[in-house]
Design brief:
By secondary structure, this protein is mainly α. The protein is built from 4 helices and no strands.
């Protein structure tokens, strides 16, 4: 769901939507980092999730510009989709 929201942020939306995306992404990446830690998963992936939570956090905004944020959104969305498919493939 977060990947879809990140891809929706490529469209011209109201400012409140982008604030929602920041809160949702921060919460989701913090949760994913915790799950990696709790399940003794990949330490590198846990650190990446922490970095992404900090990047998307809404309190001290990074002014990267629209184009760079669009690239970040697409790259992160693709990464999340790949993680999802790998997780689903691993459960079979």
């Amino acid at each position: 769901a977060l990947a879809a929201v990140l891809l929706l942020s490529l469209l011209n939306m109201l400012y409140g939507f982008y604030e929602f995306v920041r809160f949702a992404a921060m919460a989701a990446f913090a949760y994913l980092a915790y799950k990696e830690y709790d399940n003794k998963g990949s330490k590198d992936r846990m650190i990446l999730f922490i970095v992404l939570a900090v990047l998307f956090q809404p309190f001290f905004k990074l002014s990267l510009g629209r184009v760079i944020w669009n690239v970040v959104d697409v790259v992160v969305a693709v990464f999340l989709i790949v993680l999802l498919f790998n997780a689903l493939k691993g459960k079979k």
